[in-house]
Amino acid sequence: xxxxxxxxxxxxxxxxxxxxxxxxxxxxxxxxxxxxxxxxxxxxxxxxxxxxxxxxxxxxxxxxxxxxxxxxxxxxxxxxxxxxxxxxxxxxxxxxxxxxxxxxxxxxxxxxxxxxxxxxxxxxxxxxxxxxxxxxxxxxxxxxxxxxxxxxxxxxxxxxxxxxxxxxxxxxxxxxxxxxxxxxxxxxxxxxxxxxxxxxxxxxxxxxxxxxxxxxxxxxxxxxxxxxxxxxxxxxxxxxxxxxxxxxxxxxxxxxxxxxxxxxxxxxxxx
Length: 271
Known about the structure:
This protein has about 270 residues and is of the alpha+beta class. The chain has 2 domains: about 5-50, no CATH class; about 60-265, Glutamine Phosphoribosylpyrophosphate, subunit 1, domain 1 (4-Layer Sandwich), CATH 3.60.20.20. Helices cover about 25% and strands about 30% of the residues. It has 7 helices and 13 strands. The strands form 2 sheets. Strands 3-4-5-6-7-8-9 form a 7-stranded antiparallel beta sheet. It has a 6-stranded antiparallel beta sheet with strand order 11-10-1-2-12-13, covered by helices on one side. Helix 1 crosses helix 3 and helix 5 (about 135-145) packs antiparallel against helix 6. The protein is globular, with a radius of gyration of 23 Å. The two termini are about 35 Å apart.
């Protein structure tokens, strides 16, 4: 390898602090490089190459709750998928469903978890429920029957458990109540169940995903400026931090109005 003079200094400096046991650079032995200027340079170049895309992350499905700049509660859902990308959102009365695209209907035979109602408006337009699976319906039904949101989430997730697919995919949920301006996130994973009311405030959004970012945390709060459900869908698909979350397929959003919720869905641009 032809090492530029500037890099030779770097490589030699690193070597000066490395014992023959490679204790100073434990990852050298892991990558099986010889401890010499060429080996050190190769390591540095590899690390730099890896870190160029380090902000891009596949996290699977995403749900979020937040408040618009004008003070209206919001709930959103984004489908991200590597295994089953041929899906779309379809609006129905007071609900939105995720289904396979035409020509890919047989995908449900490969994985029964890929088609479901992902959004429902209940309790006379007061509450929006958005999730990544079949838990949408029992949660919505319990809330509509008068059960507190926390209890409806906990009971439904405990009963259904995580998705027993090859990834043990967590079930994730977002619920907002426009009457008392509250928002809830909930997850059930193979290692536990969490339900949390998030501290909502204008221009903020809290989110949780099925993979990597699948713990509930107030630290996972980002700026949110959308005022319409259409703008919220666009944001979920490629705005802010979501531009760094790969494999978007479609997004669904519900934003409170004076009389209920306005909902929209949008597919990601073809790639």
